[in-house]
């Protein structure tokens, strides 16, 4: 029943490791996003995907790579993890592109708390 | 630089009072604004969205938008302890056929029983 789901919920790993976080949405939405929320609770967009195409790529390190096998999934791969990568990562989805002044709700997953030791 | 500014608080109000949360934004091109509520350890959930100047009411919540002043607010009437959370203001910015949300840093609200 969960609209946007993420796995794992918690991820603890050593510096230098490579890890992945998976996201799935069953809402039939066209666009999916990855956000990072730091220890000060600041939520910042990292990537978004629409119909399997990357449409926004913020200035994040290229160690982070989003991969979308289909419209319902957007996974986040992180190579060579660093201490500063510790944060909560949220996946989100929305129905469609922004069009004029229309509103378009983003639905968030439960988050993945990543701790790099 | 598209920025959304919020007073980080904490904002404390007694139960039953009106809580007023404020937000300003820097980019006049932003079209839509959203208020999300985030409980500790949980994900953000949408409370209100607004894209026209004026007020929009939904139950105990009223969102206000003033594009000339680049100001967005959220009023919570008859505040309840269950309203205690961090409230995130976000502006939607369009570009290249898509949009993104830029979030403020959030205001922590505590409703005192």
- The helicity of chain A comes to under 10%
- Coarse shape of chain A: globular
The profile of the biggest β sheet of chain A is:
7 strands, mixed
- Largest inter-chain interface? A-B, 27 and 27 residues
Termini gap of chain A: 34 Å
Number of DSSP-assigned strands of chain B: 11
Return the string of H and E elements of chain B: EEEEEEEEEEE
- Provide a count of the helices of chain A: 0
Estimate what percentage of residues of chain A fall within beta strands: over 45%
Low-pLDDT regions of chain B: none
Classify the secondary structure makeup of chain A into a structural class: mainly beta
Low-confidence stretches of chain A: none
Mean pLDDT across residues of chain A: 88
Rg of chain B, Cα atoms, Å: 14 Å
What is the helix content of chain B? under 10%
The major beta sheet of chain B can be summarized as: 6 strands, mixed
How far do the termini of chain B sit from each other? 40 Å
Structural class of chain B: mainly beta
SSE order of chain A, as H and E?
A: EEEEEEEEEEE
Instruction: Describe the oligomeric state of these chains in a short phrase.
Output: heterodimer
Compact summary:
With 117 residues, chain A is an all-beta fold. In chain A, 0% of the residues lie in helices and 54% in strands. In chain A, 32% of the residues are buried.
């Amino acid at each position: 029943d969960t609209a946007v789901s993420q796995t794992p919920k918690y991820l603890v790993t050593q510096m230098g490791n490579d890890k992945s976080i998976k996201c799935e949405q069953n809402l039939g939405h066209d666009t999916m996003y990855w956000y990072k929320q730091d220890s000060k609770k600041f939520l910042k967009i990292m990537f978004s995907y629409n119909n399997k195409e990357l449409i926004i790529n913020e200035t994040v390190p290229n160690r982070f790579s989003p991969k979308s096998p289909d419209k319902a999934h957007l996974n986040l791969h992180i190579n060579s993890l660093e201490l500063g990568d510790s944060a909560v990562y949220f996946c989100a989805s929305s129905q469609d592109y922004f069009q004029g002044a229309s509103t378009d709700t983003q639905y968030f997953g439960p988050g993945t708390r990543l701790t790099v030791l | 630089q598209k920025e959304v500014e919020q007073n980080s608080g904490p904002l404390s109000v007694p139960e039953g009072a009106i809580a007023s949360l404020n937000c300003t934004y820097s980019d006049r091109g932003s079209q839509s604004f959203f208020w999300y509520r985030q409980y500790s350890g949980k994900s953000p959930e949408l409370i209100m969205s607004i894209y026209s100047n004026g007020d929009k009411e939904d139950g105990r919540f009223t969102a206000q938008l003033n594009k000339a002043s680049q100001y967005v607010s959220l009023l919570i009437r008859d505040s309840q302890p269950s309203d205690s959370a961090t409230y995130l203001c976000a502006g939607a910015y369009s570009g290249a056929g898509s949009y993104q949300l830029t979030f403020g840093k959030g205001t922590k609200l505590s409703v005192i029983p």
